[in-house]
Amino acid sequence: MDLTPLLASFLLVVVAELGDKTQIAVITLSSHHNALLVFASGILALLLVSGLGVVIGETLTQIIPLPIIRVAAAILFLAFGVYAILLAGKKEGQVDRSCSKSVALSAFSMIALMELGDKTQLAVVALAAEYGAPLLVYAGVALAFTAITGLGVLIGCKLLRLIPLRIVRLGSGVVFILFGIVFLLNAFLQGFLSV
């Protein structure tokens, strides 16, 4: 059995996602939420979106226009940014006691929206078409996302030991708001100028 599709997809996703917006989101979410919930929700979102990429391919962005996906992701990022900044005003000893359903849903929706139509999803589509081995491509992608998400969660958990929670919340709020602005600009420039 030729494992080239598995290895190629694993290496491509690791290189593409290391330090990418998804990993930054996982780091910031796990720095002040339940790390296991963030990990599980993130992996579920990434596996779902990657699976859609392998199975559906480019038709996904024909079903849901990319500008709509980008605007939805932008709104979600802006909301999370504002929320994180508001949490930064809490006393240091206060821990975010958000309902586990809320944390899981937030992490899942944020990561899924970020990855829809992302360069990694498009690369997965191309690899599946190139190698004609969708299961091996998917397995490589799944392993890579598990490794990258796990690394992000570990970094996020350790962050609180080094940096005060208030600073982490402020920083993550700013990062989310910046991503939201970039996504909105992207949606406007690419979506509305092509009409």
Describe this structure in words.
By secondary structure, the chain is an all-alpha fold. It has one domain. It has helices at 4-17, 21-32, 35-55, 60-63, 66-88, 100-115, 119-131, 134-162, 165-192. α1 runs antiparallel to α7 (119-131), α2 (21-32) packs antiparallel against α3 and α2 (21-32) runs antiparallel to α6.
Mean pLDDT: 79
Count of all domains: 1
Biggest sheet features: none
Assembly level = single chain
Helical amount: over 70%
Class computed from helices, strands and strand pairing: mainly alpha
- Quickly count the helices: 9
Poorly predicted runs of 5 or more residues: none
Please give a handful of descriptors for the protein shown:
195 residues; mainly alpha; 9 helices; 0% strand; globular
How would you sum up this structure in a few lines?
This protein has helices at residues 4-17, 21-32, 35-55, 60-63, 66-88, 100-115, 119-131, 134-162, 165-192.
